[in-house]
Amino acid sequence: MEDKKMVVSEIVYQSIREKIINQEWTPGMKITSEVQLSNELNVSRMSVREAIEKMVALNVLTKKKGGGTYVSNLSPSIYINGLIQMMLFDKDELLDVVEFRKVIEVDSAAMCAQRCDDSTILALEKYYYIMLENSKSSETFTDADHMFHVEIAKGTKNSLIIKVNEILTDIWRAQQKELNHYLGSSKGIEDHAKILGAIKNRDSELAALYMRRHLTRTIEEIREVKARNS
């Protein structure tokens, strides 16, 4: 019985987490009441309360006496740890995320081409074809795009690179969603085809070059979008 309660509480926790990551609940916003969440998720109030208390302990949520529970004002780099494994960031910091990815992923692509096994190639092909077939479906395309980069990290066989990607997976996925919304999918598909081809051919220099071009182009396009909107 205790194990079941723990599982339900974790489901509630993940639901709350997604609302914050997807910016459905933003810093300073009062969250849905325990009663409403209980009804929405079809779980007990105790499970909701346990999940909220966990978020409060991590300083992601703040309780105000007699005034409900609010999303805390979070800086981009505070909450990276083994429990929450997420970053919450302002949309204006999208450029910072891609610049950081460029630092990590160019060498990761080269290392992947050198070290990956056939299962990585098959996974990359699978996600590339999902992207190709779902260019008009933002959610499916975004998930496949994200997983393509996850597989490259795994293909490096480097435990620290893999761990960094695991820790940052939520910000990676949320950022990918923003990118696809702003920039569309056509150029991304072309870039991923080239990266995939280089990795399949075990050409580490070309894999790094195509990844660098992909992320550099993305950075330039983000700057253009920001300039138009400023």
Secondary-structure blueprint:
Layout lengths: L1 H20 L12 H8 L3 H13 L3 E4 L3 E4 L22 H22 L2 H16 L4 H18 L3 H9 L1 H15 L2 H15 L3 H26 L1
Helix pairs in contact: 1-3, 2-3, 4-6, 4-9, 4-10, 5-6, 5-9, 6-8, 9-10
Give your account of this protein's structure.
70% of the residues lie in helices and 3% in strands. The protein is built from 10 helices and 2 strands. It has helices spanning 2-21, 34-41, 45-57, 94-115, 118-133, 138-155, 159-167, 169-183, 186-200, 204-229; strands spanning 61-64, 68-71. The chain has a two-stranded antiparallel ribbon. α9 (186-200) packs antiparallel against α10 (204-229).
Quick take:
With 230 residues, the protein is mostly helical.
Strand order, sheet with most strands: 1-2
Helix content: over 70%
CATH class placement of the largest domain: Mainly Alpha
Strand portion, in percent?
Answer: under 5%
Q: Strand tally, please?
A: 2
N- and C-termini, Cα separation: 55 Å
Q: What do the pLDDT scores average to?
A: 83
Poorly predicted runs? 1-5, 76-92
Structural class: mainly alpha
Secondary-structure element pattern, one letter each: HHHEEHHHHHHH
So what's the overall shape?
Answer: elongated
Question: At the fourth CATH level, what is the homologous superfamily of the largest domain?
Answer: GntR ligand-binding domain-like
